[in-house]
Amino acid sequence: MRVAPVLRRTLAFALLWWVLVEGSSVSWGIGLASVGLATFASLRLWPPAHWRISYAGVAAFAGWFLLESAKGAVQVAALAFQRRPDLAPRIIEISLALPAGAATVLIVNVLNLLPGTMCTDVEGKILRVHVLDGRLPVVEEVRAAEARIARMLGVTQ
Amino acid sequence: MPDSAREFFSAVFLVIGAFFYLAGTVGLLRFPDVYTRLHALTKADNLGLGFLVLGLAVQAESLAAALKLLLIWPLTLAASATVGYLIARRARALGISPWLRPEDR
Lengths: 157, 105
Hints:
The complex is a heterodimer of chains A (157) and B (105).
Chain A: H1 3-20, H2 28-45, H3 55-81, E1 90-95, H4 102-113, E2 117-123, E3 126-131, H5 138-153
Antiparallel strand pairs in A: 1-3, 2-3
Chain B: H1 3-30, H2 34-59, H3 63-93
């Protein structure tokens, strides 16, 4: 096993522990044990070579996601305060190009926070999405989200 | 940052956060069915929480405490997106059909 991923993860979990105890140095005994166990568990559950996630890709995705989820909140807030909320809901079916597993779980969760989409179920490759306003180009937005996730995870669609 | 500037930014963020919580709750009460209500809660409350933890983090006594507050946000985002999906899926399984505009029926 290569050393670099082990070191990186140990450092990340140590940082997390430091945050959780708010910088206190009293409980580092338990902290070191927890960091060791967490690193071990993460290496077992998510082997380093599994995906080629780039940090730049994650940062780009996070920026896009923040902006989009803020848009979603503004849209819902505007609808909530309208005299008669101008809703035009419908359920659409989209055939996913992402591989099953973690990538599908991620897109379901991401879509639930993006403007106007809420997944209701996944059946194999078919994703059913409840749409707040069917007059908007939702399919294109789902496709765009899918492409971004594929790019971030380094998976081919 | 001087304390007065801190308090100013903290207050601005907290008020914005409270506004989105209010919007989410108004949506929950006014939207017509379980699916549209889920939209209101997952989207508006999440941005509300983001501004709330930001407002509190500005006031935090140490960097670690501020980061701990900010860490709450992504964890809650993940939980609320997943819970939203579970409720919507259950509603579909129970055969609850979504509300439609009169002209779409």
